[in-house]
């Protein structure tokens, strides 16, 4: 027998339910699948961003920074822009 994972009820704004249902119908998936995929991707993206922010803060504290003017000049040079 398959073991069920724990679940937790959540509240979704009514207008979003229609959007979720439209997407679920278009993808031939359940509302539950769409919501769980969205939550999973949101959490992954935010975890990635938080890791990068923490790495940046640590680098800054260690003095491993590049002045903004150098960064902007490098971007401009790469794209052939003049500053």
Automatic annotation (TrEMBL):
Any one Gene Ontology BP term = regulation of DNA-templated transcription
Q: What InterPro entries does this protein's entry cite?
A: Arc_rbn_hlx_hlx, Non-func_TypeII_TA_Antitoxin, Ribbon_hlx_hlx
The protein here is known as Predicted transcriptional regulator
| The species this protein was found in | Paracoccus saliphilus
Lineage at the top is: Bacteria, Pseudomonadati, Pseudomonadota, Alphaproteobacteria, Rhodobacterales
């Amino acid at each position: 027998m398959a073991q069920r994972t724990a679940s937790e009820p959540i509240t979704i704004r009514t207008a979003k339910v229609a959007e979720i249902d439209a997407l679920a119908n278009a993808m031939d998936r359940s509302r539950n699948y769409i919501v769980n995929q969205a939550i999973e991707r949101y959490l992954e993206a935010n975890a990635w961003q938080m890791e990068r922010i923490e790495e940046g803060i640590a680098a800054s504290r260690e003095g491993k920074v590049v002045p903004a003017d150098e960064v902007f000049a490098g971007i401009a040079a790469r794209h052939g822009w003049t500053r």
